[in-house]
Amino acid sequence: MNELIWLNGEVMPLAEAKVGVEDRGYQFADGVYEVIRLYDGRPFTLREHLERLEKSAAGIQMPLSMTREALSAEILKFVPRTKVREGMIYLQATRGCAARNHVFPANCQPNILFYVRHLAPLEAPGAGPGAALHTVPDERWKKCWIKSIALLANVLAKNQAASAGADEAAFVEDGVVTECSASNLFIVAGERVVTHPIGPKVLPGITRLVLEQIARQLGIDFVERPVRFEEAMRADEVFITSTTREISWVGKWDAKVVGGGRCGPVTLRLHKALRERILQETGSLAGAA
Ligand code: PLP
C-alpha cells in the first residue's frame, strides 16, 4: 500500500517523509493533534476539529503557521488523492525543530503533517459486544482540555486496561469518573445523560459536542456534573464516545456487569441519531444499517 502524507505543504509517500530529530514534538512532546473521521471520503466535523486544534495550539502558546481555512482547503484537496473512503485523518502540529532547550525558540516554524488511514466501517448502533472498562488512577496533567501529543499517561492507562482484558481505561479520581484514556464517558440516569464537565481533566470531545446537540434535539436532558464511581456502576446505561468509535455501549466495568449488560434504549436512540447526522453531513451510507 502506497500511503501518502502531507508534510509542511508537500505531498509525498508516507514512508519517505522525514522530520529532524530535534523536532520539539519528538524531544518534548511539544505539539498538538487531531483525529478526524472520514465517511465515504468526506471528513466529518472538520471545522469543529480544526477549531479545537487552534484552541489546543493556543493552550501551549504555539502559533500555527496556517489558518484554519488554509488547513481545511489542503485537507480537502489531499484526501481524494489517498483514495481512502472509510478511515481517519491523523493531523499533527509540533512547535518545529530547534536546538534542544526547554525555553521556546524565538522563531520556530511548526511542523504540520496529516495523513489518512483506512478504518473498517463501524457496526450498526447497538450491535456488537459492549465495551469493557477498567478503572485506573488519573495520572495525567491538569490541562487535559488540550489535545496534546504527550499521551504517555493515556498510553500506560490503556495498556493497564488491555492487560486486564478490558477495552478502555476509565480514569477515577477521588471517587469521581472523569473520562477514559481515549474517549469521553457518559451515564444515563432516567432520561438524563450525565457526563463530567470539560476542563482540566476532560477533553472537549468533538463526538461529545455533537452528542450534546443531538440529545437536546431529541429532548433528552444533557447534564454536566461530576459522576461518582458508585453512581456509574449502578446507572441505567453507560457509554463512551470518540471519533473512531462513535458511541460504544459499555457492558462491563472492572469485570462487573453495568448498564444492564446491554445497549440501553437511550444510548441506542442517541447513536441512531448520530448516524443520521453523519449521513446528512457526509452523504455516506457506510454503516447506516
Ligand atoms: N478523551 C480523550 C482523552 C481522547 O483521547 C479522546 C479522543 O481521542 C476523546 C476524549 C474523544 O474525543 P473525540 O470525540 O474528539 O474523538
Explain this structure:
- The protein has helices at 24-28, 46-59, 68-82, 152-163, 206-217, 229-233, 265-282, and strands at residues 4-7, 10-13, 31-39, 42-43, 87-94, 111-118, 131-137, 168-173, 176-180, 184-189, 192-195, 221-224, 227-228, 237-242, 246-253, 256-257.
- With 289 residues, it is an alpha+beta fold.
- Strands 7, 8, 9, 10, 11, 12, 13, 14, 15 and 16 form a ten-stranded mixed β-sheet that branches. A six-stranded antiparallel β-sheet has the order 2-1-6-5-3-4.
- Strand 8 (168-173) and strand 9 form a beta hairpin.
- The chain is globular.
- Pyridoxal-5'-phosphate is lined by residues 35, 154, 179, 182-184, 203, 205-208, 241-243.
Number of helices: 7
Secondary structure tally: strands: 16
Strand content: 25-35%
Write down the Rg. 19 Å
Molecular shape: globular
Content-based structural category: alpha+beta
- Parts with pLDDT < 50 across at least 5 consecutive residues: none
Secondary structure: helix percent = 25-40%
